[in-house]
Amino acid sequence: MEILLTRRLHDFAIKELKKRHRVEIHTGKIPMPKNLLMSKIRDKDGMICYPYDRIDKDVIDAGNKLKAISTFSVGYDHVDVNAASQKGIVVSYTPEALTRATADLTVALMLDLFRRVNEGDKIIRGGKWKTILGPYEFLGSDLHGKTLGIFGMGRIGMAVAKRARGFEMNVLYHNRKRISPQREKSLNVRYVSLGELFRRSDVVSIHAPHTPKTHEMVNLRLLRKMKRTSFLVNTARGKIINEQDLVTALKRKIISGAALDVFGSEPIKSSNPLTKLANVVITPHIGSATIETRKKMAEIAVQNLVLSLSGKKPIYQVRAESSRPGLP
Ligand code: DGY
Prior knowledge:
By secondary structure, the chain is of the alpha/beta class. Helix content is 35%, strand content 14%.
């Protein structure tokens, strides 16, 4: 069969695909321009795509022979899953492989906010380290005893909760559906309303999927509920936050700071207002960016595609939700 890769993947993964299929790899501009994507998908049976590829209804309709879409990601807000399922196209993704890596980065960002690691680095490089250790210099705050609010208690949210226990934090969470009492007990987490989560937490961390419902859900109204001393961390999807509102909240010190690995539109430019704020830590969407995790993701993306194209169930299939029409 014919396969399209919207960018190069690990050599071992391409080799594996080539054992069974003909593979076309896009090597030009990333993301593929829509017209090019639509023309290339026309004669393809399957594709591997990425979060920045917008696989909307037009692209899906252009895929006359398309049977399987495998995304190299846990997020699938870039694929119109309903349009695909209406045409019998199997959509698969790569959760689990990246759970720990993303949870680790979340903790790294949280630690950075609380202990001002990045800021300290900048102080030294800027030649501003003038005073040696004293009672009031470069103070951050302890993580232990603080309250972490997890918005979205899926795989990654749970992995973050486990790690937070190691730091002796209290953990509250809000999720579309409450998790089982046994799970709550084993994770040592308490369910609260969204408002309460933002009100009570010293740091709120976002781990919800980006859907029409969560689109820009974190807005000024919600941010105003937070304590002035609290922080926001986002390693999920940038579009869950209304970025302008966040900039306002950070500028007016409505919240103390934010650490962001994801943005409304990526890559952000150095002119983005977020880059000008001292109380912001930013990373370039590296939640899953470890050698081991990306290799695992490639393995799964390939297996998902091969299985789907041979009429078998992929390892991880995305289910269409009638409540989620179109792309957010
Ligand atoms: C995902 O898998 O959705 C991540 O955001 C990509 O690193």
